[in-house]
Structures are given as C-alpha cells and as structure tokens.
Amino acid sequence: MRVFTQIRPFEPLSGQIYKHDIRVKWHECSHCDYKTKAKQNLNRHLAYKHDIGVKWHECPYCEYKAKEKGCLKKHLANKHIKMTK
To answer: pTM for the complete prediction?
Structure first.
C-alpha cells in the first residue's frame, strides 16, 4: 500500500534569485514600492494608482472625467441619455 503525502508548493528562500531573473531590468515606481519587469505595466500603475500620464476624457455636460473612454461612454449613457439623443 502506497501512502501519498501532500505536495507543498515551492517556497523560495528569502533573497533567492531565479535563473530567469538574472538579467531582468526592473522598472520601479518612484512613488511607492511597486516594481515590475514590463515598462508598460509601470505606466499603467502610474496612471491608475498615482494619476500620472493620464489622458482624461471629460464629459461635455458636467464636471465628470474618466481615465478610459469607455467609462465616459457609460457615464453619458447613464446620466445624460436625453442630452445625447
């Protein structure tokens, strides 16, 4: 009779470097402790967490503004449906 033990996920030692991270350039946020391997992820983080580099989409009927055009479209449809027709 075989007895199977539960397999635990690999837990790296603190400070251990993975072989795939040896020559990785880390992109670090200058406003908090966030860091990532992809610059595009850092730009997204800066935009959504710190409002840096955001192109604001402003509502023509009120003071609402959104970071994404789709959010502005939803706002217009929900709040100003009579004005847009």
So the answer is: 0.54
Q: Is 43 helix (H, G, I), strand (E, B) or coil?
A: helix
Give the Å distances, CA to CA, from 64 to 40, 68, 82: 27, 12, 17
Judge whether 13 and 19 are in contact, CB under 8 Å.
no
Torsion from C-alpha of 66, 69, 73, 74, nearest 10 degrees: -60
In angstroms, the CA 51 to CA 54 distance is 6
Tokens of 17: 């470097």
Residue whose entry in the numeric block shows the structure tokens 């959010």: 71
Per-residue pLDDT of 37-46, as tens digits, reads 899 999 999 9
